[in-house]
Each structure stands twice: as structure tokens, then as C-alpha cells.
Design goal:
- By secondary structure, this protein is mostly helical.
- Helix content is 76%, strand content 0%.
- It has helices at 21-38, 40-43, 46-61, 63-76, 79-83, 86-113, 122-128, 131-138, 141-148, 153-158, 162-179, 184-204, 208-223, 226-257, 261-267, 269-278, 285-294, 299-312, 315-331, 338-351, 361-373, 381-385, 388-414, 419-426, 432-441.
- The relative contact order is 0.17.
């Protein structure tokens, strides 16, 4: 067998603290809250409000191309799963089942805890968009489904109609999958286009501190310091929900497979710290894959399940989208019907795909979900913009845990899990240095 050599990335010089986006956003949030508290008249100025609104418009600008590229790329590459037969099918089935659990848990907690209830100034905001109410009520179910079909593909992108973009993306992805190798060139082009659009997002995210400052200052200045309690309540509710999902749902799954979720979390603690510092679970992808191989998962399963999971198994993002959507609806005074909440589940299952690799992508998928459920909810994104950094941390951590557990489960399901290695590593019976020596000499 050819030698496997672990290649370490070259160390980079640490950036000055004031150039780190994480620090900039935190400072902007604190300054925005102080300005809103001390000078509410200034904080509610149209130009201050425009800082947050402008950032949201920049995010909305790239929603359609991001959804198109990620959905088409994800579906058209499913042919890779066919090469390994049952592994790909089992992985996708597991992803969808567990993702549905995450979405439902987010909805249940949002309906029970109601973190957005009583948000100051809610009715004032709702009244501004009351003109849309009659139009929404007049739309029949048949009109809704017909509206999913765009008059033209270009029109769907130009008008930012998310469901129409989703429909075309799904059809286009399956068409490319059917073409097989003949579609290699266009698949590569779409993959490259996705990287380019994510590059645009990385540029846009540099304006996040400005948007966070404007959104937080306006929120506190208009709604008062009481709004902070609701926002802190949303953060706390999300973190508790995510923790319950990891410890209970993933814990039960791990117990069925035959390992402890607590020992597993301790095993990947280094990767969790990497994610905590970057807010993106993709930053820990290479080392996570290496550790899962050490843990006893087969190389073929690790190579398929982990990368695929970064598009199809985003448990933290799913919890966030359902919980944040209900929070915004409650904060703006809208009572979502059961049909609308079911729509959240269906739409979020699609819009969450491909949201793991870039900081702030969860905020983009939230915008897409809100736009489909009820366009009147989209302005409410400004309420959660200031705290999205805190939410991004938890999303990425939960996504990483979910994908790690998924790989072990699929290996076990396929009968390719080395239990001796699993227990030896989780029980810390193997020295990591010795394991690396073994990997490099096999």
C-alpha cells in the first residue's frame, strides 16, 4: 500500500486582532448597542438604518446564484455516490432523516419557548407592510403552485423568485446527472462559478461590522434596551436547542451504534476549537476526515460521507432557520399558520444545502427561507443581523458534530466500522503520535 503522509499547512503569521472579522463584528455590536441606548434619536436616523438594510440587500443580491450553484452541483455530483452503491444511498437517507429531526426540533422549541413574543415595536413594523396582507390572502393554493413555475428562467433570477430558482436548479441538476461524463465540463464550470460567488460573499462579509453596527444601533434605538433581552433569549434558546440535539438525538444514535457521544466530542475537540474560531465547519474538514479514518471508518465511507454531508447534512443550520424564522415572525407580530410552518420545513430542507462552507451562509439561507414563507418577514432579518455572529458559531459546531457522527453511523450500517479502533481511540488507548506513525508506514 502506498504511504500516506499527513501534510501540515504552512503556519501563517497571526493577523492583528483589529483585522479579525470576529473581533470587528463584536466591537460593532457593542458600539451599536451603546449608540442606540445613549443616542436613540441619532440611532434611528435613516442613514443608520440604511447601514443594516444595505448589508441585507448585498446578501439578497447573491441568494439566487448561490442556490443555483449549490443545488445543481450537489445533485449533479450524486453520480459519485452511485460508484460506491449502497454507501451513497444510505448516507443520503440518513442525512434527510436526521435533518428533518433538526428542522422539527427547531419548530417545536420556537413554538413552545416563543423567544420573539413581546418584542418591542413589533406592531409598528407589521403595520408598515400591512398592504401586502390582502395580496397574500387573495392568493389561492393553485396560484401558489403555479407561481413556482417561472415564465422564463432569466426572469426567475432577475426578480429573485427563490422557489422558481429552486425548481429550475433541481431540474437542471438532474439533467446534468443524466448526461454523465458528457456534462463534466459544465459541472466543472458551475463548481468554479460557485467558488466565485462564494468569493463575492467573502467580500460582502467584510461589510458585516458596518451592517451589524447599523442594525444593532437602530434596533436598540427604536425598540429600547428591552430588545436585548429578546435577542439574548434567542441566542440562549438556540444554543440550548443545539446542545439538546447533539446530546440527545445524536447521543441516542451514537448509543445505537455502540459509542458514547461525550467521548466522541472529546475525540474531536481540536476540530471543534478550529470551528469555534472560524465560524465555518469546513475549516476543520481535512483533519476531521483524517481522525475519522483513525477512528475505524473505512476510507471510502469517509471520502464520500463527510464531503457530501457538508451540503446535505447541516443540522445546526436547519435548527437555526426554523427557530429564527419563528422568532422573526413572533417579533413582527405575525402568527404563522400550520401550512406556513410546514412550508418552512420543506423549503429549509432545500435552501440549507451547501450552507456550511462559508461564514455567514446560514444568514443567506435564512433570507431565502423567509422570502418563500412570507416576503413580509424579510425586513425582520435586520433584527437578528447584529447577533448572527453568535448564531454562526453554534451552527458550525452543530454541523461538524452531525457530520462526524454521520460518518461513523454509515460505516457501521455498511459493516465497515473497525470497532477495535473505535473503542481504542475513544477510550484514549492509542497515542496519537503512534497512530500517525502507523498511518505513514502502512
Amino acid at each position: 500500500m502506498a504511504a500516506t503522509i499527513a501534510v501540515e499547512a504552512p503556519a501563517r503569521a497571526a493577523r492583528p486582532w483589529y483585522k479579525v472579522l470576529y473581533v470587528q463584528v463584536l466591537i460593532a455590536i457593542v458600539l451599536g448597542a451603546l449608540v442606540g441606548w445613549l443616542w436613540p434619536a441619532f440611532a434611528t436616523n435613516d442613514w443608520i438604518k440604511a447601514l443594516g438594510d444595505g448589508f441585507i440587500k448585498l446578501i439578497k443580491m447573491v441568494i439566487a446564484p448561490i442556490i443555483f450553484c449549490t443545488v445543481v452541483s450537489g445533485i449533479s455530483h450524486i453520480q459519485d455516490a452511485k460508484k460506491v452503491g449502497r454507501i451513497g444511498v444510505k448516507a443520503l437517507v440518513y442525512f434527510e432523516v436526521v435533518s428533518t429531526f433538526a428542522l422539527v426540533i427547531g419548530l417545536l422549541v420556537g413554538n413552545i419557548a416563543k423567544p420573539g413574543a413581546g418584542f418591542g415595536g413589533a406592531m409598528a413594523d407589521a403595520s408598515k407592510v400591512a398592504g401586502f396582507a390582502k395580496q397574500a390572502e387573495a392568493q389561492k393554493s393553485v396560484d401558489f403552485f403555479l407561481h413556482i413555475i417561472p415564465d422564463t428562467v432569466v426572469g426567475a433570477f432577475a426578480q429573485g423568485e427563490i422557489l422558481q430558482v429552486l425548481l429550475f436548479s433541481i431540474l437542471f441538476g438532474f439533467a446534468l446527472m443524466g448526461l454523465g461524463e458528457r456534462a463534466h465540463t459544465i459541472r466543472s464550470f458551475i463548481d468554479d462559478a460557485a467558488h466565485a460567488v462564494f468569493g463575492v460573499i467573502s467580500i460582502v462579509m467584510r461589510a458585516a461590522p458596518i451592517g451589524a453596527f447599523g442594525a444593532m444601533a437602530y434596533t436598540i434605538g427604536k425598540f429600547g434596551t428591552g430588545a436585548i433581552l429578546n435577542l439574548v433569549g434567542l441566542i440562549a434558546t438556540f444554543y440550548v436547542t443545539a446542545a439538546l440535539f447533539v446530546l440527545v438525538v445524536l447521543g441516542i444514535i451514537a448509543k445505537i451504534v455502540g459509542f458514547s457521544i461525550f467521548k466522541f466530542l472529546a475525540y474531536i475537540k481540536d476540530e471543534l476549537l478550529i470551528v469555534l474560531g472560524t465560524s465555518s465547519s469546513e475549516s476543520a474538514l481535512p483533519s476531521l476526515m483524517e481522525k475519522l479514518e483513525r477512528l475505524g471508518c473505512s476510507k471510502s465511507v469517509v471520502g464520500l460521507v463527510v464531503p457530501t454531508g457538508y451540503s446535505f447534512n447541516l443540522d445546526g443550520t436547519n435548527i437555526y432557520m426554523t427557530l429564527a424564522t419563528l422568532f422573526i415572525a413572533q417579533a413582527l407580530g405575525f402568527d404563522l399558520t400550520m401550512g406556513q410552518q410546514i412550508t418552512i420545513l420543506l423549503v429549509a430542507m432545500l435552501t440549507s444545502k451547501g450552507a456550511s462552507g462559508i461564514t455567514g451562509a446560514g444568514f443567506i439561507t435564512l433570507a431565502a427561507t423567509l422570502a418563500v414563507v412570507d416576503p413580509r418577514l424579510v425586513p425582520g432579518m435586520a433584527i437578528v443581523l447584529g447577533i448572527d455572529k453568535f448564531m454562526s458559531e453554534c451552527r458550525a459546531l452543530t454541523n461538524l458534530c452531525g457530520n462526524g457522527v454521520a460518518c461513523v453511523v454509515v460505516s457501521w450500517w455498511e459493516g465497515e466500522l473497525d470497532r477495535d479502533k473505535l473503542h481504542a481511540n475513544l477510550n484514549k488507548q492509542i497515542d496519537p503520535a503512534d497512530m500517525e506513525t502507523a498511518l505513514t508506514t502502512n
